[in-house]
Structure formats: C-alpha cells, structure tokens
Design brief:
Layout: H1 7-27, H2 30-54, H3 59-66, H4 70-82
Length: about 90
Amino acid sequence: MGEGIDPTKMCQSLVDKVAQSRQLSAITDPDLLVLFEDWFEELEDEVLSLRREKGSLDVKTLAETLGLSQRGATFMISKLEREGRRDESC
C-alpha cells in the first residue's frame, strides 16, 4: 500500500485526545480547585515550618521529607522565595 493515514493510529490519537479533555475538565471543577488550593497552602506551610525548625534544607531532603519529587520541592522553594515568604532562618 502507498502512503496514507493509518486508521489505528488515528483512532488511538482520538481516544488520547478525549481522555486528555476529560482530565482537563476534571481539574476545572470548582470543588476540586478549592481542595487543591487548600492542599497547596498546607504544603507551603509545611515547607516554611520545616525550614524554621531545621534551617536551610537542600532540595533532596525537602523532597524526601514531604514526599515530593525533587522538581516539586524546587518549585515550592522558588515560589515561596518569589513571594517573599522566606523565613529569616532559611
């Protein structure tokens, strides 16, 4: 056969896009957004509390302590510092 569209790949692409659309609509649910914001606020408070107790923490230790990825811990530290929410002991 010559060049053309593979119907299997086209169907899989469509299924993937529908699944992604459902995932995106789930995170726009106002109730879920409130829960996420509350959780995120608590996480920020935990980071600040840990930094007050233990002083400056490296990203790896913070990630392990809070059960975050290192990328997530780096994001939290950067966000708090950008917002000026850095404790004196940090």
